[in-house]
Automatic annotation (TrEMBL):
InterPro entries: PyrdxlP-dep_de-COase (IPR002129), PyrdxlP-dep_Trfase (IPR015424), PyrdxlP-dep_Trfase_major (IPR015421), PyrdxlP-dep_Trfase_small (IPR015422), Pyridoxal-P_BS (IPR021115). The keyword tRNA-binding does not apply. PROSITE patterns: DDC_GAD_HDC_YDC. This is Aspartate aminotransferase family protein. Keywords: Aminotransferase, Decarboxylase, Lyase, Pyridoxal phosphate, Transferase. GO terms for molecular function: transaminase activity. It comes from the Bacteria. Its cofactor is pyridoxal 5'-phosphate. Belongs to the group II decarboxylase family.
Length: 508
């Protein structure tokens, strides 16, 4: 309801620093946005390579040079000029076609524009009175996700800062639900039960490190995580799951959760969800699926079937800042039975009093381990709305086509050892390995190849270690990366390897 009172004449000394009804704020907003947009356009129009190629100490020094603040302040334009070199041009250009190191995506334009709206509105998702419309947008996006996953009506979810938080939440609910069922013990109120040292979590040896990190933060210690062997495709080995469970039973341990990974960080492998679900069900284990990476296949037209039985999970992790192309950070935690959120809820009189709940007021803090929380749901909403589900699926499918092309191409190259001939999602693992008369330390050489190309800015890819050997990794998330980009990158890798070997590096 408008009061009809205009405050136009009530000027303050701070009017040009905030967006508000008054003309000064509006003009400053418009001007600032235009200047930022022009500066970013200028920088992006000449990002010929993914990285400028400077050393850490060079960049550190340039940044130190801009770390001073004056009493009277500077104009946005002046500061933009000042940070152009040190920050804007020295940053990793993640949207470049040859930027393919980590699960770190080029952000969609509607996501970037979404960030601008999110920052402007600055809603906080903890209580309805701080996110009066945003609460329902997030709830609507959770409903969309429920439907897309195939989750039942009883399910629920909440946006998170990413996979780390979502995995933590999954294991927290799993732990507390087990303690409640098994001992009638309330961890929230009483802390860990006397027998907590017997609690065990199973995941594969290729699972994300945050499973162990969560166990440690949950007071169970990393010792609570038992890693199961993986097969030649880096999928959790079912025989070993059975063997481990049998051994734990014999030792009097209490396994309570089974974590499957849908898209492992290195290989993109997908654990056998239907079989694991049925083991979990039989043994009464909480089944958590870490689909931080693989969850992107929900929108794929040709690979959606790889997520068969995802909807059986008791809880799951989905990241939108990976295969959903959202600016960092954006993720979700989903749980099949929303009643489990009771293990998290705490009523604070100032924020989410129980009376609110009685009156039907939705305070999302009840479902989260965070309090103040970003309105990240909006950028995903804008992205799905503007790109459209058809094109979104095509984008993801394009990266799958590229990954399988890259695997085929690398398999045909001399001096390249390819680890995954049939990539399940978008990652390619390989290393340079030539027959030479001189002894070469190929771990050292591959490490040097990665470092050299990063410092020349010609290609940004990752290194990882498999069975003690150094391998290189391409994570092909960018639907604009072409077959030609892969050829050029592999040429650079070969050239660099030869130069390094001739230069005497890595000789043993
Ligand atoms: C990225 C990733 C995580 C961690 O998620 P963040 O968003 O970085 O916190 C967990 N699990 C898997 C499989 C991942 O790929």
């Amino acid at each position: 309801m408008s009061t009809g009172i205009t405050l136009k004449n009530k000027k303050t000394a701070f009017d040009s620093f905030f967006l508000h009804q008054g003309g000064e704020g509006l003009a400053a907003f418009e001007k600032g946005m235009e200047q930022v947009s022009n500066k970013l356009k200028e920088v992006y129009s000449d990002t010929g390579q993914p990285f400028i190629g400077k050393t850490p100490s060079e960049i550190e020094k340039e940044i130190a040079g801009i770390m001073h603040f004056s009493g009277e302040g500077q104009s946005i334009q002046e500061v933009l000029e000042e940070i152009e070199g040190p920050v804007l041009r020295n940053s990793l250009h993640i949207s470049h076609e040859k930027s393919m190191a980590h699960l770190h995506c080029p952000p969609l334009l509607p996501g970037i524009i979404g960030e601008c709206i999110i920052g402007t509105l600055n809603q906080s998702m903890d209580s309805w009175d701080q996110s009066t419309a945003a609460t329902y947008v997030e709830e609507g996006m959770v409903d969309w996700l429920k439907e897309t996953v195939g989750y039942p009506e009883t399910s629920d979810g909440v946006f998170t800062s990413g996979g780390t938080q979502s995995n933590y939440m999954g294991l927290l609910l799993a732990r507390d639900s087990f303690c409640d069922k098994h001992w009638g013990h309330n961890v929230q109120k009483q802390g860990l039960p006397a027998d907590f040292q017997r609690l065990r979590i199973l995941c594969s040896e290729d699972a994300h490190f945050t499973v162990k990190k969560s166990a440690s933060q949950l007071g169970l210690g990393e010792q609570a995580v038992i890693t199961v062997k993986t097969d030649e495709h880096h999928r959790m080995c079912l025989n070993d799951v059975q063997a481990v469970l049998k051994r734990l039973e014999e030792d009097g341990m209490l396994p309570f959760a089974l974590v499957a990974t849908c898209g492992t960080t290195d290989f993109g492998s997908i654990d056998p969800l239907p079989e694991l679900d049925s083991i979990a069900e039989k043994k009464g284990l909480w089944f958590h699926v870490d689909a931080a990476f693989g969850g992107g296949l929900l929108l794929s037209h040709s690979h959606r079937d790889k997520l068969e039985n995802l909807e059986k999970a008791d809880s799951m992790t989905i990241d939108f800042h990976k295969l959903f192309y959202q600016p960092v950070s954006c993720g979700a935690f989903m749980v099949k039975d929303r009643r489990h959120f009771r293990f998290l809820s705490h009523h604070a009189d100032y924020l989410n009093p129980e009376k609110d709940e009685d009156e039907g007021i939705v305070n999302l803090v009840t479902k989260s381990t965070s309090t103040t929380r970003r309105f990240d749901a909006l950028k995903l909403y804008l992205s799905l709305k503007t790109v459209g589900l058809e094109t979104f699926g095509k984008m993801i499918d394009r990266t799958m086509v590229l990954a399988s092309y890259a695997a085929g191409y690398l398999a045909g190259l001399d001096n390249i050892e390819l680890k995954n001939k049939h990539p399940e999602i978008n990652t390619i693992i390989f290393r340079y390995q030539a027959e030479t008369e001189i002894g070469i330390d190929f771990n050292e050489l591959n490490r040097a190849i990665q470092q050299t190309l990063l410092h020349e800015g010609k290609g940004v890819f990752a290194k990882t270690s498999i069975d003690g050997e150094t391998f290189l990794k391409l994570t092909l998330l960018n639907p604009r990366t072409s077959e030609e980009d892969i050829h050029e990158l592999m040429d650079e890798i070969e050239k660099t390897a030869i130069q390094l070997m001739n230069g005497g590096l890595a000789r043993v």
